[in-house]
Amino acid sequence: MKRLAGLLLSTAAAVAMSGAAWAADFKIGLSNGWVGSEWRTQMIEEAQAAAAAWKAKGHNVTVLVQSANVDVPGQIAQVRNFINQGVNAIIINPNSPTAFDPVFAQAKEAGILVISTDAEVSSPDAVYVGIDQKAWGAAAAEWLAKTLGGKGNVVAINGVAGHPANQMRVSGYKEVFAKHPGIKLVNEVNANWDQAQGQQAMQNLLATYPDINGVWVQDGMAAGAWKSIMDAGKSGQIAGTGEIRKDFIDLWTSKKLNSGASVNPPGVMASALNVAVLMLQKKQLKTPATTGRYKNAMYLPIPFIDQANLADAAKKLEGKPGHYSYTSQLSIADAEALFK
Q1: Parts of the chain with a pLDDT under 70
Q2: List of residues 6+ apart from 327 with CB closer than 8 A
Q3: Which fold, 2-131+267-302+332-336?
Q4: Residues 264, 212, 192, 134: is their CA dihedral positive or negative?
Q5: Residue in 216, 266, 267 with CA at minimum distance from that of residue 238
Q6: Which DSSP symbol is given to 57?
Q7: Residue range(s) occupied by CATH 3.40.50.2300 in the chain
Q8: Calpha distance 62→323 (Å, rounded)
Q9: What is the pLDDT of residue 56?
Q10: CATH pick for 133-262 out of 3.30.2000.30, 3.50.50.60, 3.40.50.2300, 3.40.50.620
């Protein structure tokens, strides 16, 4: 009788464990080390929405968020906090491409999956899921060079100096402009992905280089840069890259600006989360994440907005607040299609 009771208890425990495994409850930490734009806020919100979508599939995915303006040691502390909390995975938008190698190794030793997004990292213990930032910068530069007919004086307004995504974007446009000897990059400045700083930077550049033909400027600063261009009465004389926020798309449409914009969707963290959940289920990618600068990347498509599809982009943003960015992401079904 005791043996039968023991057998029943063992069977019940096995069933319970099997049910727990099927339920696949996961705890995922989201680390964001810079909060200087609404893009980052939207990024986190889309990731949280993606986690909620897994509940309909029987998986309770809980996200823990650490988001603050921190230096690299501060963001490393965020990662250590997640390790101590026993998360199953960490998704990070990193402030450095190389500084996290030791702490990511610690995470791997603790059995924690690490995925970076928006900026690639050198760690062999992490996977990158996001766009190719170098290709992002190159696509906008190709549009600008083509629009200018391969010749003209161009300035560049960059983001945060030293940030990995910024560095790769800069290398992208420099590589493209080097292929067009008629394009002269007369100056480059940093405006920290801040609209007001972008506006001031453009005002200063126009005062110093009144014969500017083109402007390569990143998201977060393009609206400011274009405001200075319009204030100077030169919107019909200058071609410049744009951004994907609704307020700028509306301005672009109403003022008929000569602009084009590479899309870095805020949905990249949601895409990374969907990939993470499938990896935590021990599923295998059909194509391993072995591309990119560090041979650990899974690149997502880079949409591009220009005059040809501007109206479509504007329609998708109808009813959204001005700070909302045009976005896309791997849905759960899209992500599942990448796995065996």
Answers
A1: 1-23
A2: 42, 46, 244, 265, 266, 267
A3: Rossmann fold (3.40.50)
A4: positive
A5: 216
A6: G
A7: 2-131+267-302+332-336, 133-262
A8: 27
A9: 87
A10: 3.40.50.2300
